[in-house]
Each structure stands twice: as C-alpha cells, then as structure tokens.
Amino acid sequence: MLNRPVRARRAYLRAVCTALAGAVLSAFASTAAADGYPEKPVSIVVGFAPGGTNDILARLVSAKLQERLKQSFVVENKPGASSAIGTGFVAKAKPDGYTLLVSSSGGLTVNPAVMKGLSYDPMQDFEPIALLGSFPLIVTVPAALPIANLKDLAQYATGTQDGRLDHGVASSSFQLAAETLSAASDIKFNHVSYRGSGPVVAALLGQEIQVGVLDSAAVMPQVQAGKLKALAVTTGKRSAAFPDIPTVAENGFADYDVTIWTGLMAPKGTPEPVLAALRTAVADILKEQDTVEKMHALGMDPGNTDSAALSERIAQDIARWDEVARAANLKPE
C-alpha cells in the first residue's frame, strides 16, 4: 500500500498534468478557431438607430472587413437606452468573434455615470479591438430660429417659458456634452431622449426641439442643405473637415473641449488569435486612402488598433464623466 505522502504527490502530479493538458487544448482550440476565422457571417451590433455616425462607420468598416476576410459582416441595429441594450447584448454574446460591437464612447464611459442597473461592465465584459475614430459634436439648431451663435442661443433660452431649451438626446454622452456646455454658458436644457441621431435630426427639422448636440455625420447634410444651423463644434480646435464652424471656446466659453470616439469591441474571452486577426485587418483598413477620405467626410479622424491605449482611455473617460454627472447632479436612473 502506498503511504500518504506518495499518494499525495501522485495526486498533485495528476492535477498538474490535467491542467497542462487543458491549457494546451484550449490554446489549440483558440488557434484552430482563428485559422479558419471567420467561417460564417459576423454580426456587428450598433446600439443606435440607423443614420448616426456609429451606424455609418459600422457599415463602412463591415464592408471593408467583408472584402478582406471574405465573409459577410452584417450590421445589426439594436437601439434603446442610450445604446445600453445593444451593448449589453454583445457583453453576453458567445465570445467567439462572431458578435462584435461598434460602440460610441458614451455607451462605455457615460452610461455607467448616468444609468442604474447596467447589464454590462465596460472594463470587465469587453475586449478592445480598435479605436475606429474620433470626432466633434456640433451644436445645431433649426434654420428657422433667429440664432447665429451660442450667445444668441443663450438669449433665446431666456425667452422660453421656463428659461430652458428642449435638447434632443441621442446618447448619454451627448447629454453630458450638453451639460458641460450648460455649465460653461449657463444655457439650461430640458433633455428629450430619442433612439439615435437620425430621430433627433428629424425632430430638429420639425422644430419639435430647439437644439441638438450631435455627431457631425448626422447633421452636416442638413446643415449644408440650409435646413439646420451649425453654431459650434465641441472640440478644443476647429475641425479640419468643417473649418468654418467655430469652437464653443471661440463663442466666448473658454476651455470647453469634448471629443467623442467610436470603438470596435468584442465580448470578454474572445480568443486572442481571433482578436489579432481582426486588429490586423482593421489596422490596414484605417490606413487605406479611401477609408481616410470617407472618415474625413464624416468629420472624423481615423483611429488605431492600440488596445491597451483604448482600455486606458475608457478608464479615464469613465472617471471624467462620473465627475461631470455628479457636478450636474445627474443621478443614475
């Protein structure tokens, strides 16, 4: 009969061998998954209705991925709750590379500050693939209103019944951008929620609301058509794509700077070889001249596939927007 120390050593060795075998099989499975990836259509989820920057960019990237990886990449719009519905859907999806997320910065960094009971954790539930691009928001009003700049907007607000302007909210990040504008300018807003930038633009055109702080891709066609007015961009410097639109700071409200970004994410646990294949493809796509030109036409600067930098940016933005929400007394709802 074996004595107890010998039995213990053998049990330990068996456990070590089992663990090593499991690790080898897991690594083999991950590599095998990447070798043929993608073997079936890939879903790219957007948490907003069609028509906004995230949707437009998702369709641009999906078409390019389809060309490079020889498989269908299909955009699925799952709007609602400032993109929390679509974001939560991807967080719980099988982490195999076949369900991806094109997310606004707000879905990952603002929602935690303003929404209770989120079904996802931005830092724990996702694998960053790429920062697709960054862009300004544009403070926009209906062309019919007698407003030419932000000082006019502030004066117009004082003539409303409650001293506030109805502001169309396409996402939580746009709401907090408006709140930072309110803090800088003392313009007060009633926030009216919509399911995406497209519906907010429609509400502006119908004069259901007086102002929208919106992504440039959604509003510029109507601005160029003379149906809406662009009063200011939210970035610290003028946009190269829209050099004639002044910044909020140039309107007399110093130090205002809000830049919005869009990222490509996968569920946590997606095999690293699959992530690497996607990062390689996206890195090439973001450097292609026609991609750069199309993104510039949207008012966007192309991003990169530095996943560590994107993770750090998410963490920093969460801290920033949490502070803004608390200063505005916006409690999670």
UniProtKB/TrEMBL annotation:
The keyword Cell cycle does not apply. This is Tripartite tricarboxylate transporter substrate binding protein. SUPFAM superfamilies: Periplasmic binding protein-like II. Keywords: Signal. The keyword Signal applies. Residues 1-29 form the signal peptide. It comes from Verticiella sediminum. PROSITE patterns: TAT. InterPro entries: BUG, Bug_dom1, TAT_signal. Gene3D superfamilies: Bordetella uptake gene, domain 1 (3.40.190.150), Periplasmic binding protein-like II (3.40.190.10). Belongs to the UPF0065 (bug) family.
